[in-house]
Amino acid sequence: MTIAAVIITKDEEQNIGDCLQSVRWADELIVVDAESRDRTVELAKGYTPKVFVRAWPGYGPQKNFGIDQAGSDWILVVDADERVTDGLRQEIHALLAGGPPADIGGYEIPRRNYFYGKWIQGGGLYPDYQLRLFRKTSGRYDDVRLHENFVLQGRRERLREPFIHYSMPTVHHHIRKMMRYTTLGADEKLKRVSHISGWAIATHHIGTILKTLFTRGGYRDGVHGLVVAMFAGLHTFVKYAKAWERLNAHREP
């Protein structure tokens, strides 16, 4: 059975080389770039001729386009800031060589998330299973603006070996990413609600911090875990505040 690695990119010149190097063993490498303004496309072409540049339609549609370009039996979706470890590569090779059961549509892969140079094991960030390895014919991504889902046909199982995910290399990077994601999150929130109270903003903000730090064990990661928990609460607060602002933008003062 053959496998294609699919990566979507936007201004990822710092990551794309190491990412593609980690999946160079795949039968196909497919990069779908959203009109990057840096050297992402140039660097990607050093690894594969299958580099496609197109306007950004959303996470799900962009990944679906990449899947459609593959001629392989199986698809491995990798983010540009992720790396496939040797252990994961070996596990995937052994799995496909043995022939997965016919009723299995895909596999969830654990992910080690690194924040500010440290692997965060608490706060609900590990094992962080992601459905990333699947038969090409087993489904499609939906069109949710944030946290798109792969709608799988068939049974799923889990692999043991993880991705490495350099999610937030610096606090500055975290802030920039948070501002983009909270806008998308507010858009999704407004599809489901027509009113946001001050009580909801406050309780979700504080509740997220406490849940991340204590219920999910973020305290075990020391100061790193504290910073992650505070950012998680801030993310929730900003998302709700943006949604609240939009709901009240056109109302009379």
From TrEMBL:
InterPro entries: Glyco_trans_2-like, Nucleotide-diphossugar_trans. Pfam families: Glycos_transf_2 (PF00535). Coiled coil: none annotated. This is Glyco_trans_2-like domain-containing protein. It comes from the Bacteria. Belongs to the glycosyltransferase 2 family. WaaE/KdtX subfamily. It comes from Nitrospira defluvii. CDD domains: Beta4Glucosyltransferase. Residues 6-122 form the Glycosyltransferase 2-like domain.
